[in-house]
Amino acid sequence: MTAWIISNMAPLMFIGLVVFMLFGYPVAFALAANGIIFGLLGIALGVLPPALFQALPDRIWGVMANETLLAVPFFTLMGLILERSGMAEDLLETIGQLFGGMRGGLAFAVIFVGAMLAATTGVVAASVISMGLISLPIMLRYGYDRRLAAGVIAASGTLAQIIPPSLVLIIMADQLHQSVGDMYAGAILPGLGLALLYGLYVALIAIFKPAWVPALPLDARAAQTMQGQTGWTSLLTLAVIATITAAGVSVWQAQRPFDERAVLALSAGVSVAFVCALLNRMLKLGLVSPLAERVVFVLVPPLALIFLVLGTIFLGVATPTEGGAMGATGALLMAMARRKLSMASLKQALDGTAKLTTFVLFILIGARIFSLTFYGVNGHLWVEELLTALPGGQTGFLVAVNVLVFFLAFFLDYFELAFIIVPLLGPVADKLGIDLVWFGVMLAVNIQTAFMHPPFGFALFYLRSVAPLRPYIDRITQRETQPVTTAQIYWGAIPFLVIQLLMVAIVIAFPQIVMVYKDAAPKVDPTKREIIVPMIDGDDEDLTAAFGGRPADTNKPRDGSKSPEEREADRLNEALRAPSPPK
Q1: Could you tell me if 444 and 162 are in contact, meaning their C-beta atoms sit under 8 angstroms apart?
Q2: CA triplet 364, 366, 53: central angle to 5 degrees?
Q3: Rg for the chain (alpha carbons), in Å?
Q4: What stretch of H or E contains 27?
Q5: Distance between CA 218 and CA 559 in Å, rounded?
Q6: DSSP, res 317
Q7: How far apart are CA 551 and CA 545, in angstroms?
Q8: Cα 558 from chain centre
Q9: Which residues contact 558 (CB under 8 A, 6 or more apart)?
C-alpha cells in the first residue's frame, strides 16, 4: 500500500483537491491545505526531504515581489471608478439612438458598448451590471426576446476577459512567463473577432426572427428622426475622413510593428474626427449634425483612456503596470470631470479593489504551496508524460487541453483555472513547440466560457442580480412588465457559449490572428552602419579594379610610374594586412 501511494502521489493530490472543494472549502485554502498535508505525508514516507517547506517563504515572497501583479489592483480600480463615472450610460444612450432605427439596434449597441467597456474597464462584473441596469429595462420595454436580451448582455460583458486590458491576460502572461504586452497584442484580433461574431448572430436573428429584435418606435428615437439622413451622412463623412487619416498614418509608419501602427493610426483618425466636430461646434459651421457631434464627443473619452493604457504599452512608453496606474489616474480624472466622484463612491471602489486583489493573491499563494509539493513528487513530469503520450501530437494535445479546460470551467472560475491548470500545461506546450503567447490567448478565450456556463457562470449571476425578479410597472409606458426568469438567462447564454467555442476553433485553425504580435519587419537604425571591406589577394592592379578603378592597362601612366589610384590602393592594402593591435 505504501509503495502504491508513493508511486501515485501526484494523481492523489488532484483527488485530494477535489475532495476539499466538494466539502465547500475556499479554493485558496483548499490548495494550501492540500499541499501541506501531502507534503507532510511525503516527508513521512521518505519521498520528500524534511527541508522541503524551508523553500515556502521564498515562494510566497516571490508572489509578493512580482511587479506584474501590481497591474491587477490598478486595472480593477480603473474599472470600478469608470462604472460610477456615467460613461456606460452615455455610451448606451448615444449608440442606442444611433442604431435604434434598425432591427436589433439595441443589441448591436450593447455589443459595441460592451467592447468599449472591455477596452477600458477590463472587469466583467462592472460591464455586465452596468449594461444590465441600463439596457435590459429598455430592451424589455420595447419587446425584445428575453432570452436574447439576457444572452447578449452577459456575453458582451465577458468581452472584458479577452479584449485588453484584461486581468485574465495579465495572470496568463505571468503564469506562462511571457510578456504582458505581447499577450495584449495577440489578443486584440480574437477579442474584436468575438464581438463581430456576436453582432453577426444578432444580424441573423434580425433576418430570421425579426419579432425578437424590434426597432425602436418613432417616439423613442425622436432626436434621430428629426435629423433624418443628415446625421448618418455627416457621421459617415467623419468616419471616412478618420479612416483615410488612419490609413495614411499606417502607411507612413509601415516600418513599425503591427500593434504600434494600429495605435498610431487609431489615435490619428480619432483626433482628426474630434477636431472636425469641435471646430464645427465652436464656429457653428453646420457641416456636422448634432447626432454626429454627440457620437464623437461620447466616444472620445473612452478612446482617450484606451490610448492612455494600451497605446502607451504598445508603443513601449510604459510597462503594463505603469499603464494600469495611468489608466486608474485617467479614470479618476474622468469621474471628477463628470462630477460623479464622491468620497462614498471612491471608498466603495477602493474596498472592491482591495477585496479582489486579496482574492487573487490568496489563490496564487495557495497555488504556490500546492505546486511546491506537486513538483517535489515530480507531478509535473507525470502531467507531461500523460499529455505528450496523447495521439496526434500538437493537435491531440490542443484538443485534450481545450476539452479539459471547458469542463473544468463548469466548476472553477478563471483565476482558479489560471493558477492551477495553466502552470502545468505551459511547459508541455513549450516542449511540443507551441508558441506560448498563442497558447495563452487560446486558453483565455476558452476560459472566458467559464462566465457563460449554466448554472455557475459568473456573468449569469451578475445579470441575475440586476434583472427583475417580479412583475413591475415600466416608468415610461406605465404598463406591467414581466420579470426575467433564471431559465431564460441560462437559455439565452447557450448560443453565445457556442460562439465562444467557435472562436477557440478559429484561433486554432488560423493562428496568425494571434501571431500578429510578432512583427518580422527589419528595424534599421540609419545612424549605425557597418561597412565590411573584404581582404583581396592579388596584385595592385587587381586591387585597383576591385575598388572601382579603371583596368590596370588603361589606368597606368606611360612612364611606368603608378597612378594616384594605384598608390591609394597600395596604402589601403598595407593597412588591411597590418597586424591588429593587442587587446
Answers
A1: yes
A2: 120
A3: 31
A4: helix 27-45
A5: 103
A6: S
A7: 6
A8: 77
A9: none
**What would the pLDDT profile of 294-321 be if each residue is shown by its tens digit?**
888 888 888 888 888 888 888 888 888 8
Give the H or E element holding residue 498. helix 486-509
Is the overall model pTM greater than 0.85, yes or no?
Answer: no
**383: its cell numbers:** 502531467
Strands (E), 467-560: 472-473, 480-481
Q: Is 520 exposed, middle or buried (0-12, 13-18, 19+ CB in 10 A)?
A: exposed
- Contact between 32 and 373 under an 8 Å Cβ cutoff? The reply is no
54: its cell numbers:
524551508
By the 8 A CB rule, do 120 and 114 touch?
Answer: no
Asked if residues 576 and 533 have their Cβ atoms less than 8 Å apart, the reply is yes
For the purposes of burial, counting CB atoms within 10 Å of the CB of 284, is it exposed (0-12), middle (13-18) or buried (19 or more)? exposed
Q: Which amino acid is at 143?
A: G
pLDDT digits (tens, 9 = 90+) for 138-193: 888 888 999 999 999 999 989 988 888 888 888 899 889 898 888 988 999 999 99
CA dihedral 174, 179, 182, 188 (to 10 degrees): 30
List CB contacts of 249: < 8 A, sequence separation 6 or more: 261, 264, 265, 268, 269
C-alpha cell read off for 319? 510597462
CA angle 360, 364, 368 (to 5 degrees): 175
Helix segments in 377-432, DSSP class H: 379-388, 393-408, 414-420, 422-431
- Cis, bond preceding 455 (omega within 30 deg of 0): yes
**Residue 360: half-sphere exposure toward Cβ, Cα within 13 Å:** 24
